[in-house]
Amino acid sequence: MHNFTLAELINGLRSNKFSSVELTQHFLNRIKELNGDYNAIITTTASQALESAISADQRLANGNAPEMCGIPILHKDIFCTNGVRTSCGSKMLDNFIPPYNATVVENFENDGAVMLGKTNMDEFAMGSSNETSFYGPVNNPWALDCVPGGSSGGSAAAISARLAPGATATDTGGSIRQPAALCGISGLKPTYGRVSRWGMIAFASSLDQAGPMARTAEDCAILLNAMASFDEKDSTSVNEPIPNYRSKLDNPINGLKIGIPREYFSEGLHSGTEQAVRNSLVELQNLGAKLIDIKLPSSHLSVPAYYVIAPAEASANLSRFDGVKYGYRCEDPKDLEDLYRRSRSEGFGEEVQRRIMIGTYCLSAGYYDAYYGKAQQVRKLIQQDFSNAFKSVDLIMGPTCPSPAFKFGAKGNDPVAMYLEDIYTIATNLAGLPGMSIPCGQVDGKPVGLQIIGNYFNEERILNVAHQFQQSTDWHNHMPSELA
Amino acid sequence: MSWETVIGLEVHVQLATKTKIFSGSSTRFGASPNTQACAIDLAMPGTLPVLNKQAVNYAIMFGLAIDAEIEQKSVFERKNYFYPDLPKGYQTTQLEKPIVGPGRVVIPLADGTTKAIRIHHAHLEEDAGKSIHDGDIPIGVSGVDLNRAGTPLIEIVSEPDMRSSDEAVAFAKKLHSIVTSIGICDGEMSQGSMRFDVNVSVRPSGSSALGIRTETKNLNSFKFMEEAIQLEVDRQIDLIEDGGKVTQETRLYNGDTKISKPMRSKEEANDYRYFPCPDLLPVIVSDQTLDELRSSLPELPDARKSRFTQQYLLSDYDAEILASDTSNAEFFESVAEKTKNPKLAANWVMGDLTARLNMENKNISNSPVSSSQLAGLILRISDNTISNKMAKQVFDAIWLGEGNADEIIEARGLKQLSDSGSLEKIVTEVIEANPAMVTDYVNSDESKRKKKMGGFMGQIMKASRGQANPQQVNQILLEKLNELI
Which domain, by its residues, includes B177? Predict the structure, then answer.
């Protein structure tokens, strides 16, 4: 059953090939058996899942159940789940049980989807390798000595290892697309404001966006249908009509104009990755698309701007974790200062502390204009680059990340090298644009991701093209050799 | 050397919204600790703020009331600092683009003239919670009550335009009058609905450069504010005259001990690292909203005051007092309309009624004497049914709930004796019964006779059981005594 796509499972439930209880039990067994190899899931909610599956089966029997009814999924541990520990990958929240659901979780629950558990992640979503998690690193199913990418490494590895047919994830600078690429699955970061941020623990509020991960573009469309909603509880949620993301998947892509930014094929790009991406572009040409050279001249500024804006916002967002109200508190604080200092020093990991310090510095008196003010100007330039580009092209494509999955510790001592993992993904977050990664080839048996960037609220077009690509290629069906 | 005092105020005004500025929790005062704090107020992970539109409208109304420019695209920012009563570790406030721009407030001065105090700006922000160190809290432990966290505030920042504590108090009172008149604040000072930070400096008279200022924070009564300013002015002058220098610092004034102490100096001041709050969109105010709010504004205290002087022919002083508070003003107007006697209405509202209310810690909106009851009383004074002295008795009885003026006058037989036949009879009897006093009167100097009349008056009032109309008695008595000279 675990080899079926999510779309196939939906049909299977409806044609009574299996029940949601059977399906749920199957994935729970699989998690029990295999998760030890990957460490992709940090909390399994078995009994709750089976209860949901029983009600889902009843709802399915009654007819008219939503598509996601009875489908087991995983939530990244950044989404608050009522009554279930939500750690955000941090010691700080190791004991935190929220009394509320994130809107994303609520939306799936309302549709009758079954939560299997919560996935591992970089601490507070800060990382590109899942090595910063308090719960230990996640192993890439394609090569157990390699990273799965991050921060949504747990969700990506779990899909790749067939521990669930779909999962939620979040993307602040590439945290859906980069692990999707490294684990050979499909992942979509929607337009900023498309999916509610309520109950999603904030890293950088102006960049954070939740999105789906699954094996195929079609499955991502199904998940996005359930996730997307206008939410009055999130002031940055956008009240745009929500299409059925499945409805245009089968449209032909004749005449599609694809912009190829020369900046995305520059120095630092692994030659094997470049080859795989170029091959897939040829494939799209064969399907009727036109490739057009474009320039995104401010691209080189996106990583520096991001590493000012994201830490600045994070430095404030993470101030609430102070040992006073919830979460980790140090032993025997001698006074208030000591309580703050030790709770935060002991509760946060090194990378989180590094970013809090960077952000605090950038916002400090005398530095604000030079860093934060400047970074906001760069952000405008990047937005302009994209809006200029979208005057002449429908979508923009390139590699998702510079190279395939790297070994644990390879970039551990060099934060900047790690930050450059997101060199191709960060700009879309700064612009608020939707972007997707789909598997498009392999290098040394490790998957490569093709990134597809669309204009605002043009997820439909991205999913359509990704689906068409997957109809004529089989990279999304490749399995890690261990599983085959 | 003579010194000039320079004062600027920062005033925190709690807005009278039902719910908090970024959450749906109630803002009601006095609930048990942490019973009015939801996940948003507690800054639980993943929660997000949603702006209360009413709070925005109230801030705009204040701006319109002081003729200020309204910023049609204002921005919320995060002010970062750690404190247990600040759950997010930052206060959501406004800095670069506050919603209310420059405006002015006119205050009355002691010499009868007025002075315009410039307002630098007013911004919207959330209140913090409270730390608790007493009550049920064990020794050595501090508690945090987040009921107040997220209560909407406007912070009104004046220019340093005040030159004395009197002016500062007049300004504070005028602000109180404006915000309560337009209904954006309940004005309950004892519940912290208005709190003042005073910036004080002194400079040699004639100098135009500003001296080094201190800020005394969180004064919650006009009285404490006045005391704190006086104390600080004296402290600074003494310090400078003794060869010292004022340090820029934040101070706290204790109204009970009358002592002020430094809290922190400029060097220790926080770097608040303000930046725009990414969880909130800029606040856009449309022209239509502005027009609607402008036309919804009730009469402002200054306009009401000038109307009172014209319509009711009140003195500037009376009009200022009666017009400054909407409830007072409405009460007065109701009494004035019903009695057609604005002067007497004003005297009673400002005099006996206010004194009694103050004495019993009540205010006009829960006054035991209604405006109709006071009007009923005044009607009986104007038609001479009762004397002023009787009126005080009747007023006390109304206060105690014994009924309306007419009922009480009837029940106590308090009608004033104005029938001249009966009065003459009593006067004659008293004169005849006191020949010695008559002789004394007749033999006295003209200038002393008036005083001697008092003795007769006392006996006449006693004989009439206090019901004789004193003016009439006075006239009859004078006539009769003069006949005897």
Answer: 3-289
